[in-house]
Amino acid sequence: MGMTITEKIMARNSGRDSVVPGELVWTDINSVMTMDYLGKTCFDKFKSLGKKEVFDKNKVICVSDHLVPPPNQKFATMLNEWREVVKEHDIANFYDLGRQGIAHQIMVEQGHVLPGTISIGTDSHANTYGAVGAVGNAIGVTDAAVAMATGKAWFRIPQSVKFNITGKWQPWVMAKDLSLHIMGMMHWNGHLLYKALEFTGPAIESLSMAGRMTLCNMTVDLGAKNGIVAPDIVTERYLRNRTSDAWEMIVSDEDAEYDQVYNIDISDLGPTIAMPGKLDDTQPIEKLIGQKFNKAFVGTCTNGRLEDFAAMAEIMKGKQVHRDVNMILVPASQTVYLEALRAGYIETLVEAGAAVDTPSCAACAGIHTGVAGDGDIVLSAGNRNMTGRMGSKKAEIYLTSPSVVAASAIRGEITDPRTFDI
Amino acid sequence: MIRGTCWVADDYVMAYDIIIQEYWTSAIDPEDNSKWVMAGVKEEFNKENAFKDNGHTFIVAAHNFAGGGKSIEHVITGLMGAGIQAVFATSFARLQFRNAINYGLPFVTCDNIDKGCETGDELEYNPETGIIKNITKGTEFQSVPAAPFVAEVGEAGGLMNYVRDKIAKGETIE
User: Fold this and answer.
1) Distance in angstroms (rounded) separating the CA atoms of residues B5 and A156
2) What phi and psi, each to the nearest 5 degrees, are found at residue B16?
3) How far apart are CA A190 and CA A53, in angstroms?
4) What is the largest CA-CA distance in chain B?
5) Distance, CA of B172 to CA of A150 (rounded, Å)
């Protein structure tokens, strides 16, 4: 019997010829990622295991993203402790303020995730790594400490679910719309608990790496174990200048077994919006045209990439953000920031009246800059919209794609970018 | 055998409501994390030690307990610090299911358990057989027994102890 891509990756990294769903295995880990606010605990736990050196100084990736730059003394002190512990362990890959970015963006963009391997991170959106054909998995600080010491983590082999995506993408419709569409279809944390989601089909093959990252990123919010896109020519091109490590094209066998298979034709898929409070309460944009809001936010590990800035710049060029709207844009990394600057996107967006913040998780988790206050209605291209997520419990968050946020920010009300005069 | 009273939760108790935003950046410490555990789940628990002071041993929940995608371990240590010795639910979210295994706190999957218990009922759980008895109501439920690895980690008192022991003995992990 054949195996799915996730099963094959689990098998080869646990020294087995084959695995079956339900089996429990210890696998080799390619990279372990941890960030500023949990990192010190990881290292403290690691030390308590009785090891002096991490399993590989090049494979423990440390990133400052949730707390930088520190908006208060508490965060500044936490960052100082964090820097000390990273230095103490002589970690080769430390992305601190100045070289920072959101950890998941850094992991993929800097080539720390390789196709056919397994990487883990102490933040829930580590599922993003599936975009390059790897198994990316979110874990707690305990698993991170164990992996730092041993280079291994335990996994139960998940059942696989295939999403076969066909059809042609409409203009301004983005991977985020497909993510939200699947969220509405499958229900938030519902039927896909513990499953490995595999995205395949012509509409995925035509999707950029940025789009694949968005799609895999949000699989954690479906309750899934991981999301993955098989490596192809897009992956090869993307990784060419990012890693010199060798990797193999691992793909699903033709006779692999899936728990479920879903076929989605995206030809009719338009911009999609998740209503405040629940990710799976999604609506086509037509039902929300004219909805007012006062804050626009684009950034995060879901939608803070160059392609997202390109789409916004194209839509907003020569126009002005509506006077009733504050727009905050946060590139997902310093690299994205620099590329967007060089391409002229930042200039266009600043001219249009958008505020650009230093790369970080920003207001996404409600603990850093740009948080929502009482009565705010936020149109966000982030990943979560539950009550209180971005700050005040008296704020509402609509989730959508960067192109919808851009067109809407000009009008001051939810606007379909397909009908917007560009 | 573990015996004590239970608190019955609604569907979809979210991890970020068990430990609210203010405490995500706190240190991982059962005593400290337990003070505000469940603060976002019910208004009555949004007071220091409010959940803990009820003195329950078990939580009974329905679908997707501790979901919503937060990987922080404060959720598990908060419950443990509040005296919770096992959680029974029809399903669990994977991030916290994993964390619970790593801390040796039984997260036990059991069909229909949510419909057969009320807050305050006296329960008795046998980890070996997986049988959960509701003493108050005189009913019994068969839960899914822990996988051998999970039981082993539980006996060691969590993954840290399990791995520390292997490292000390020079044994490989496989």
Assistant:
1) 32
2) -75, -5
3) 41
4) 50
5) 9
Backbone angles phi, psi at A295, to 5 degrees: -130, 135
pLDDT for A390 equals: 94
* A289: confidence class by pLDDT, cuts 50, 70, 90: very high
Q: B97: which DSSP letter? A: H
3-state secondary structure of B164: helix
Contacts of A237 (CB under 8 A, 6+ apart): none
User: Smallest Cα–Cα separation from A20: which of A223, A153, A158, A132?
Assistant: A158
Q: Do B16 and A38 touch (CB under 8 A)?
A: no
**For residue A333, what are the CA distances in angstroms to A21, A39, A97, A314, A339?**
36, 19, 10, 21, 10
What is the token pair recorded at B135?
């003493």
How high is the pLDDT of residue A188? 65
The single-letter DSSP state of residue A77 is H
Interface with chain B: mutation pick from A34, A49, A75, highest number of B CBs within 10 Å: A49
Q: What Rg value do the Cα atoms of chain A yield, rounded?
A: 21
At residue B2, the 3 state secondary structure works out as strand
CA B119 to CA B108: how far, in whole Å? Answer: 18
Give yes or no for a cis peptide into A284 (omega within 30° of 0).
no
Mean pLDDT, rounded, for A303-307: 98
- Put simply, the answer to whether A146 touches B160 (Cβ < 8 Å) is yes
